[in-house]
Amino acid sequence: MPWAVVLWIAFVVVHVVVGVLGYQQPNAPMGDVYLVYEPWSRCALFGAADPAACTLSGSWELPGVTQGWIYPQLALIPMAVAWAFAWAVSYTPAWAITVSLANAGAFALLLGRGRSRGRLTAAAFWLAAILLMGPVGIYRIDGFTVPLAIAGSLWLVRRPFVASVLLSAAVWMKVWPAAILAAGLVAARRRLSLIWGAVAVSGGTILLVALLGGASHVLGFVGDQTSRGIQMEAPVAGVYMILAALDVPEAWVYYDPDVLTFQVTGPQVDPLIVFMTPLLLAAIAGAAAVGAVKMWRGATFATLFPPLSLVLVTAFIVLNKVGSPQYYVWIFAPIVVGLVLDRRRWFGPALLTLAIAGVTQLVYPLWYDGLMATRPYLGPVLLLELRNVLAIWLFVWAVVRLVRVPVGRVARPRGVRELLTGERVPAASRV
C-alpha cells in the first residue's frame, strides 16, 4: 500500500480520535467553541433577525466592527463557516469538521505526489503532533490558522502572491502567522508579490471594516493583547507559579473575566508586564535583522527560511506574557517546512516539538485542575515548567541554527521548488 494512502487513513483516524477526546477529557477543551465562538458567530449571522441569538450581549453585534474584539476581524470567517455543518451535527462538532477540512487541504498540498521522503516525513510528523497536542489543537481558532500557514509556507517560492494572501488572511484571524510572513519577506526573492498579497488582504479587510462603521475597532485586538497581565502558562510566569505552589505570600493565581483566562500575580509583576512586550518586539526585530544580513550575504531560501520562521514563531511563545496551550500548534508550520527541505537536520527539533505537544496535552486539559487553584499544586506546576523549558530549548536551537546559516558562495540545493510544491520545475528555473 502506498505511503500516501496510509497517511490519509491515519489523517482520518487522528482527527476522529482527537475530536472525540474533546468530549472525554476534563476541563472542557472545546469550551471556547460553544462558550464564545458559537455565541459570537450566531449573533453576527442571525442576531439582526433574531435578537435572542445574541446570548452574550442581548443585542446584535458584529465582533471587531460594532464592538472591540480580542481577535482580528477575519477570525469570524471560520466561526461563521462552521454553521454550514452545524444544522446536521450541532456547532461544536461542526467546528471540528471545519478545522479538519482546512487541515485536509494543506495535508494534500504537503503530500503532493507522495514520492518525497521529506514530504512524507513532514506529513507523518504533523499527524503525530495533532494527536499528541490533543483537542485544544483543533477546538481553537489557532487550529484553523495552522493549515493556512503550512500551505502559505509551501507556496512561498512558487506562488508568492497566493502564499501571501493565505498568510495575511491567517494574520487577520490570529496574529502569529505574521512571523511566517515576515520570515518569507526576508528569505524569499519575489518580495514584491508577497507585499502585494499582504496589501490586498490587509487593505481589503480594513476598508470593509471601515465601511461597516468599525474604523475605531480595526486594531482593537492589539490593545487588548498589550494590556493583558501574565497568563499562568506563559514561560515568564514560571517563577510566580512555583512561588504560588510553595504558598509564598503575594503570589497567587486568579481568573480574569475580561480575557477569559487565568493569570498570575506576585512581587514586581507590574514592571514585568510592561517589559515583556518591548522585549518580544526587540527579539523579533533582532532575528529579522540577522536574517536580512544573512540573505544579503548570499544565504539561500532553503537554508534561511526554516530557522528564521522558527525563531520568530517560538519568540512569539517563549517571550510572550500570554501562554495559552493552543499557542504550541504554531510551531508545527516551521517544523513541517524544515522537514520538507532538510529532514535529517530537522528530525531532532521535530522530536522535541512532539515532546512539547505531548506534555502540553498533559498540562491542559488533563492536569489543569491542579494549576487553577489560588495555590496551585506543585506537581502540575513542575510539568508545566518542563513544557516551557522544552519550548525555550527549541527557541535556543532555532537561534543557533539561524546564526549558523551558511552565506557567501554556497551550493544552492537542487529542486527547492519541487520540494515545496511537489511540482516538476525545469532545471533552469530552480532556486
Task: Describe what this molecule looks like in 3D.
- The protein is mostly helical and 431 residues long.
- It has one domain (115-429).
- 65% of the residues lie in helices and 3% in strands.
- It is built from 18 helices and three strands.
- The protein has a three-stranded antiparallel β-sheet with strand order 1-3-2.
- The radius of gyration is 21 Å and the shape is globular.
- The protein starts with a helix and ends in a 10-residue tail after the last helix.
User: How many angstroms separate the termini?
Assistant: 33 Å
How many domain modules?
Answer: 1
Poorly predicted ranges (pLDDT <50, ≥5 residues)?
Answer: 424-431
State which percent range the strand residues make up.
under 5%
Written as H for each helix and E for each strand, in order along the chain, the element string is HHHHHHHHHHHEHEEHHHHHH
Mean pLDDT: 91
What is Rg?
A: 21 Å
Side by side, the strands of the main sheet go 1-3-2
Report the principal-axis shape. Answer: globular
Structural class, please? Answer: mainly alpha
Task: Please name the defining characteristics of this protein.
431 residues; mainly alpha; 3-stranded antiparallel β-sheet; disordered C terminus
Structure described in brief:
This protein is mainly α and 431 residues long.
Write the layout of secondary structure elements.
Layout: H1 3-24, H2 31-46, H3 76-81, H4 83-89, H5 91-111, H6 117-133, H7 141-154, H8 160-171, H9 178-187, H10 191-211, H11 220-226, E1 230-231, H12 238-245, E2 252-256, E3 261-265, H13 269-296, H14 301-318, H15 332-366, H16 369-372, H17 378-403, H18 416-421
Antiparallel strand pairs: 1-3, 2-3
Helix pairs in contact: 1-5, 1-6, 4-5, 5-7, 6-15, 7-8, 7-15, 8-10, 9-13, 9-14, 12-17, 13-14, 14-15, 14-17, 15-17
